[in-house]
Amino acid sequence: METLPTTTVLSSKSERRGRSSKNQSTSKPSVIMAFFSCVAWLYVAGRLWQDSENRVILNNMLMKNYDQKPKVLTVDEKLMVLGCKDLERKIVETEMELTLAKSQGYLKNQKSGGKRLLAVIGVYTGFGSHLRRNTFRGSWMPQGDALKKLEERGVVIRFVIGRSPNRGDSLDRKIDEEDRARNDFLILENHEEAQEELPKKVKFFFSAAVQNWDAEFYIKVDDNIDLDLEGLIGLLESRRGQDASYIGCMKSGEVVTEEGGQWYEPEWWKFGDEKSYFRHAAGSLFILSKNLAQYINTNSGSLKTYAFDDTSIGSWMIGVQATYIDDNRLCCSSIRQDKVCSVA
Fold first, then answer.
1. Residue 336's Cα: distance from chain center in Å?
2. Residue 307: helix, strand or coil by DSSP?
């Protein structure tokens, strides 16, 4: 009877120890799981925070770029980027030196052998004008040895023609053959011989003439007139040494505004309310002194052409210190009255 309480007490203690050890064994996994849960939460929270920071940075960059217009690089900046600035400077200096040399008469391919000629006469011609050229050769234009003797006197005469739109075709070959036989052509390699290109032909002619011959005067002549060659030479001799001379039969007149009409000027609206041409030498024959022809050669790339070569030349002469010389002897007509030229 005395041992019963003791047994009960011991049994209670054993039961409490069992429960305690069971609670300890079940709490360890819970602590570990809680730890890893905390670590995972901290990792996810860190990533979310980093992502939010990145979004803020990207948003700021987008807003900044949105407010700024894209920068357009200048030519100078592009050259700096490419490392070509120094090369560009050298090119500009060389071009300036070349322009200066041209203006002072140091020109390539000059055929006058150091002696300045009196005149270079360019007779405009076309692919279909073979018979007319032969007529000229049998009248006022010397040929063969007579042409060489005329050049010894200081006067060069050449038929002026460009190239066919179909470069190298039968038209070009016939001109080349005729030139080899006659040796009296100035072929403009960079000019296309076509009706709509005629106003540009005058630029190519004066440029080529200046580059090939050193002369006092350069003359453009149409192929529908006859020349009193000796009379023209006498006129030029009397004008020697007169720089900036623009010589011809000076005229002006109404600008034709009706499309399809003879002498129609597509850019008629540029000539003011009265629609009148400025003073210019008639296109059948006009003369430029050396420095004016050099001006065309140097600036040919930027000179504006109009519908006709004579008005184009006249527009260029307005912008320079040219001396206009109106000579009635250069007013070609069907009736020769002390004229240098007449209509053929």
1. 44
2. coil
- Over residues 159-178, mean pLDDT: 96
Please give the Cα distance from 200 to 163 (Å, whole number): 13
Residues 285 and 332: beta-carbon distance below 8 Å: yes
Give the separation between CA 216 and CA 46, rounded to whole angstroms.
91
**Joined tokens for residue 282:** 């008639």
Residues 6+ apart with CB under 8 A from 304: 312, 315
- Percentage of residues in the chain with pLDDT exceeding 70? 70
Sheet (strand 280-289) strand order: 185-192, 155-163, 117-124, 215-221, 280-289, 245-251, 323-326
Q: Which two tokens stand for residue 84?
A: 């070509």
In this structure, what token pair is assigned to residue 173? 């070959």
Q: Encoding tokens for residue 212? A: 């090939």
Dist CA 278 CA 296 (whole Å):
19
Q: Which two tokens stand for residue 182?
A: 């006659």
Extract the tokens encoding 76: 């100078």
* Cα-based torsion angle of the residue sequence 309, 313, 316, 321 in order, rounded to the nearest 10 degrees: 180
- Mean pLDDT (the chain) is 81
Q: Are strands 323-326 and 225-227 parallel, antiparallel or unpaired?
A: unpaired
Q: Residue 3 class from Cβ within 10 Å (0-12 exposed, 13-18 middle, 19+ buried)?
A: exposed
pLDDT tens, position by position, 196-250 = 899 999 999 999 999 999 999 999 999 889 999 999 999 999 999 999 999 999 9
Question: Is the pTM higher than 0.70?
Answer: no
38 to 28, 41, 43, 47, 52: CA distances (angstroms): 16, 5, 9, 14, 21
**Which residues, at least 6 apart from 321, have a Cβ–Cβ distance to it below 8 Å?**
244
CB 121 within 8 A of CB 330: no
User: What is d(CA 327, CA 341) in angstroms, rounded to the nearest whole number?
Assistant: 12
Per DSSP, the three-state class of 118 is: strand
Rg for the chain (alpha carbons), in Å? 46
